[in-house]
């Protein structure tokens, strides 16, 4: 993910006891269904307006929600196999040996195995040609046992990312990055075959925690094709008023302080301070950054784009890093793969 650099002014930390919104546990019927199956839904907390100083803070548990979705997908995969003897198949192409990319691929493979989805991995050397990568893409396009194709990004700089993503069959583009799917996402009244997994996971978390989006002010930090731009389109589709902050934005903290919903995807560790956040806002932290920490087991630890320790004193809810958006990204990939298999085989 490309990182953003800002020049910002400082301001005092907002008083931690001020809350505009609070989450109250209750049982409810989910407002969103994943395209995999109508039974995959969840709603564990609801948001309400409150000025009470003891209004509670909620940690949005992506790990728990991701497991719930994966468990539902496992049931559907078993039902599909028993009914028509078809198991959804996902092919992942990894070029190079980036540690973070290799880790993501391992996690995806593990998740597929847990859900009963067939996983095929192709690991190519860093210096692979575009023709070599395209050969595998085209092979999986024509393979009837493969229902989803994912090319792990970023690719080495000598490869043309646009050409490679464009070569994927849009009907198998479970990562949602084919130009056709991205274009349809940006158009009102149109529906892409697939939505990119991380943005889809962000919106799914908001729904599962019953966060009202319609009419709310949403601010997205970052405008990458992977997260920032697609999540902004999804929020607009939910009738939020959306502002995107990028590297040329002046005084971004003044804009973020107006956000009811703040999604941070800038790739800058702890960039968003508590003073950037509106009291009672809901914060989705997409950032995954490694920083040095002599007290950590390996001398490094993972943090998000949001300073969690400060944000939790101001926001009404926030995703942790790790354990927030990451597990939901993988769950959405499984969801998209199952959806593709169902469409191809016309299975209800």
TrEMBL record:
Q: What is its EC number?
A: 3.5.4.9
Q: Could you tell me which Pfam families the record lists for this protein?
A: THF_DHG_CYH, THF_DHG_CYH_C
UniProt domain Tetrahydrofolate dehydrogenase/cyclohydrolase NAD(P)-binding: residue ranges = 196-343
HAMAP family linked: THF_DHG_CYH
Name of the protein in question = methenyltetrahydrofolate cyclohydrolase
Q: What class of enzyme is it?
A: hydrolase
What keywords are annotated for this sequence in UniProt?
Hydrolase, Multifunctional enzyme, One-carbon metabolism, Oxidoreductase
Q: Any stretches that span the bilayer, and where are they?
A: none
Q: Where's the Tetrahydrofolate dehydrogenase/cyclohydrolase catalytic domain? A: 60-175
């Amino acid at each position: 993910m490309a990182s953003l650099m800002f020049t910002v002014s400082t301001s005092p930390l907002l008083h931690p006891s001020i809350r505009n919104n609070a989450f109250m546990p209750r049982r409810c019927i989910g407002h969103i269904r994943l395209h995999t199956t109508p039974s995959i839904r969840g709603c564990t907390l609801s948001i309400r307006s409150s000025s009470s100083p003891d209004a509670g803070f909620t940690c949005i548990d992506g790990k728990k929600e991701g497991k719930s979705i994966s468990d539902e997908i496992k049931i559907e995969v078993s039902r599909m196999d028993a009914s028509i003897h078809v198991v959804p198949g996902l092919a992942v192409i990894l070029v190079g040996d980036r540690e973070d990319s290799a880790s993501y691929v391992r996690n995806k493979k593990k998740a597929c195995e847990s859900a009963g989805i067939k996983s095929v991995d192709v690991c190519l050397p860093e210096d692979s040609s575009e023709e070599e990568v395209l050969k595998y893409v085209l092979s999986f396009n024509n393979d009837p046992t493969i229902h989803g194709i994912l090319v792990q990004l970023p690719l080495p700089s000598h490869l043309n990312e646009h050409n490679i993503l464009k070569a994927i069959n849009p009907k198998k583009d479970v990562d949602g990055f084919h130009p056709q799917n991205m274009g349809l996402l940006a158009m009102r009244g149109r529906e892409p075959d697939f939505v990119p997994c991380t943005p889809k996971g962000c919106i799914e978390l908001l729904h599962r925690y019953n966060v009202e989006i319609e009419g709310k002010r949403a601010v997205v930090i970052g405008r990458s094709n992977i997260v920032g731009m697609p999540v902004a389109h999804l929020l607009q589709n939910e009738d939020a008023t959306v502002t995107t902050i990028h590297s040329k934005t002046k005084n971004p903290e003044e804009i973020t302080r107006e956000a009811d919903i703040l999604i941070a995807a800038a790739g800058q560790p702890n960039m968003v301070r508590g003073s950037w956040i509106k009291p009672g806002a809901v914060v989705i932290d997409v950032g995954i950054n490694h920083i040095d920490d002599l007290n950590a087991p390996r001398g490094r630890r993972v943090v998000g784009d949001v300073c969690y320790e400060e944000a939790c004193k101001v926001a009404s809810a926030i995703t942790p890093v790790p354990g927030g958006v990451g597990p939901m990204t993988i769950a959405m990939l499984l969801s998209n793969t199952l959806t593709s298999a169902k469409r191809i085989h016309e299975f209800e």
